[in-house]
C-alpha cells in the first residue's frame, strides 16, 4: 500500500519562508520516498530533479484574488521555468456568488497559457457551500482543467474533507482528477481521502504518512 500511495503524492513545501536548501531537501526526500512529484513555490523554480520525479507549482497562491491575466502570466513563466503541473487558486468570490461563467473564464485564462501541461484548480472547498463546490467543479471541467483540488492549506476555514471529496467525485469523478490537500497528517486521513475519490494527495507530512503505511504493510505481510 505504501508504494501505491506514494505515487499519488505531490510532496509539498509552500511555506513562504522556505529556503532553497529546504527545497533541495524536499526533492531528495521525495526521490527517496518515491512520490509522484514535488510542489513548490514558483519563485523556487527552476530546480533539478531526478528522472521520474515531476515538478508542480502554484499560481495565484494562496488567495486567488488577482486578475486572471496575472495568473496566466505566472503560470506561463512557471512552465518556462520547468513546471510540469500548475495548481491555480480560483477567484473564490466568483464561486461563493455563483458567478460560474466568470469563474470558468478565470480558469480558462490559465488553461490557455499552459497548453499540454497539467492544470489543477484549487477551489478552497472549506469556504464554499456544497452547491458552490459542484458549480466550481463544472466550471473547471468546462475550462479544460485536468484536476480539481480541495484547498491551499492556508485558508482559515480549513483544508480537505471527505465530504468535499465526495461532492467532487460525484460531480466530475472519472473525468477529472481529484486532489485532496490541506490538513492531511496521518495515514488514516490519506486513506479516507482516497476511498472517497481522491486521485492525488497534496502532503507536507509525506514521510510520516508513508512510514505509517509501511508499518501497516509489514503487519499484514
Protein traits:
8-stranded parallel beta barrel; 9 helices; globular; 17% strand; 221 residues; TIM Barrel; 8 strands; alpha/beta
Describe this structure in words.
With 221 residues, the protein is of the alpha/beta class. The chain has one domain (2-215): TIM Barrel. Helix content is 45%, strand content 17%. It has an eight-stranded parallel beta barrel, surrounded by six helices. Strand 3 (54-59), helix 3 (68-80) and strand 4 form a beta-alpha-beta unit. The longest helix has 15 residues, at 206-220. It is globular, with a radius of gyration of 16 Å. The mean pLDDT is 98.
Brief sketch in words of this structure:
It catalyses: 2-deoxy-D-ribose 5-phosphate = D-glyceraldehyde 3-phosphate + acetaldehyde. By secondary structure, the protein is α/β, with parallel strands linked by helices.
**SSE-based structural type:** alpha/beta
The count of strands amounts to 8
The ordered string of helix (H) and strand (E) elements is: HEHEEHEHHEHEHEHEH
> Overall 3D geometry?
globular
**Total helical elements:** 9
What do we call the CATH topology?
TIM Barrel
Architecture blueprint of SSEs:
Layout: H1 2-6, E1 9-13, H2 20-33, E2 37-40, E3 54-59, H3 68-80, E4 85-89, H4 92-96, H5 100-113, E5 118-122, H6 130-142, E6 147-149, H7 162-172, E7 177-181, H8 187-196, E8 200-203, H9 206-220
Helix pairs in contact: 3-5, 5-6, 6-7
